Amino acid sequence: MKFLLLSLFICLNLQAHTLLLKVIDNKDNTITVIGEFDNLQKAQGAMVRLESLTSGEVLYKNRLPYESKLIIPIPKEEYQIVLDGGPEEQLVQKGIAPLEGFKFKATKEVLEKLSQPRHEDHQLGIELISFLFIGLILILLTLYFSSKNTKKLIEEIKNK
Fold first, then answer.
1. Tell me, what DSSP letter sits at residue 42?
2. Could you list the pLDDT tens digit for every one of the 160 residues in the chain?
């Protein structure tokens, strides 16, 4: 029984975790950028960038600390927030305007050149994992009862 529970626990934790980006307006011309995974684990070490939508340049760049949150001054031009979690995971969100509004607006030419969101989904669905787990249990039960019945048949043949 312990084996079954342990196997089920391992199967349920085989799913990959999805990166999440939260941006909070602090109402003092700063924003708080929080990176975490959908299982509430911290995304420390992920790169946070603020990219200008007017010029395309990087306005701010820093890695998330242990707390997985950064307080960043809001730029005076339109920008986007990029949370880069590695080659398979990058989130992009439009930036929050400062209290007095943006002084410079975005251009279409620059928007095409900026970072784009990317997400490669390599996780097995919970349904597939459950069916594989049940299949493994059924195979093990089949082998167990097959060997048990084979022993009984051999004993009956010897007794004749």
1. B
2. 555 555 555 555 555 578 889 999 999 999 999 999 888 788 889 999 999 888 888 999 999 999 999 999 999 989 999 999 887 788 899 999 888 888 877 777 777 777 777 765 556 677 788 888 999 999 999 999 999 999 988 988 888 7
Chain Cα centroid distance, residue 4: 27
- H or E element, residue 33: strand 30-37
The encoded tokens of residue 109 equal 């030419």
Q: What is the DSSP letter of 103?
A: S
Distance of CA 92 to the CA centre of its chain: 14
Hey, what amino acid is at 44? Answer: Q
Query: What is the signed CA dihedral for 152, 156, 158, 160, rounded to 10 degrees?
Result: 180
Backbone torsions φ then ψ of 94, nearest 5 degrees: -65, 140
